[in-house]
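Supplementary Text 2. Reproducibility record for the structural model of the 200-residue chain.

All settings were left at their defaults, and a single model was retained for analysis rather than an ensemble. We include the record here because the model underlies the residue-level annotations in Supplementary Table 4.
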Amino acid sequence: YVLISREKGAGGHQVDNLIGQKLGWQVFDRQIVDAIAQRTKMRQQMVEYLDEKTRGGLEEFFRHVLTKEIGTTDYLRHLRQVLLTLGQQGDVVIVGRGAEYILPVQFGLRVRMVAPFDVRVDRIALANGLTTEAADPLVAKVDQERKDFIRGQFQKDMRDPMNYDLVINTSALTVEGTADIVMAALRQKLHVGPASASAP
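Retained model, structure tokens:
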């Protein structure tokens, strides 16, 4: 799996989707993960379906990981279950929601996309037809919410580069260029690429 953390405006859906496209893997952004984690029926159906397909050597390992308490809220327990199920399935790109603090590091590539604040404000303003004055507090608010979520749920600082395998400053990079860097790192760590989209 590829686990992507990003600052608001540092690497949009185009990068995530392009990586998924190159690998032939499904992309789960934070909205999808949230929806599954908050809907009991959907979560159960997904877990049951994947359990039928993924009974193998990793099952006992993941069951062991599932017993580790990261937080106390029902939401976090459901979130952990969803992320571990997706991780066990494999061949997925997961965006946000602290997946890098839940899934075993040896089976995936953990990526953080960053860019200077003013660059990100300009990007969000352009993408949404806003003035920079209107985009500025929006970007700052999302940055703070993401920081607070990771700090509150996992007691981690998402800005710490040691939490990732790769940190990319996207300010001078194209979508294609950013995706290519991620693909190169994925090949180095897991020997996975477009020609071989199977998890080790």
